[in-house]
Amino acid sequence: MKESGLRLREITDKMATGTATEKPKIVWNEGRHRFETDDHEAFIEYKMKNDGKVMDLVRTFVPPSKAGLGLASHLCVAAFEHASEHSFSIIPTCSYVSETFLHRNPTWQRLVHSEDDSKNLKSSI
């Protein structure tokens, strides 16, 4: 009984501090071409291409101190939601996006830019 009471307390403590269930606040930093946590420590960076119609997700960064909290996934969701709302397609250059996020979240695959169309893309940054 003592052990299960301890686990319950740890879970309750995490919930009280926001480390277990609280969704992180992700903000769009248009000037820096990225979506980031409100403390600016974790981010997903993008480049706009094809006259601003295609968002190339080039880099995801989460500091080691915040690893395991699902921040990379939350950052991706913010970027994909933004792309969907603005009728952008996405190039998943970042390996986390292409190899992990899209495999775990196949419904977002509909926004991925066709490789045939990407041969003639030009950067607008």
Number of strands: 5
Largest sheet: 5 strands, mixed
Low-confidence stretches: 1-20
Overall tally of structural domains: 1
Q: Tell me the fraction of residues in β-strands, as a range.
A: 15-25%
Distance between the termini: 60 Å
The class by helix and strand makeup works out as alpha+beta
Number of helices: 3
Supply database-style keywords.
125 residues, alpha+beta, Aminopeptidase, 5-stranded mixed β-sheet, 3 helices, 33% helix, globular, disordered N terminus, GNAT_YJDJ, Acyl_CoA_acyltransferase, (thale cress) hypothetical protein, Gcn5-rel_NAT
Structural overview:
- With 125 residues, the chain is an alpha+beta fold.
- The chain has one domain: Gcn5-related N-acetyltransferase (GNAT) (Aminopeptidase).
- It has 3 helices and 5 strands.
- The protein is globular, with a radius of gyration of 17 Å.
- The model is unreliable at 1-20 (pLDDT under 50).
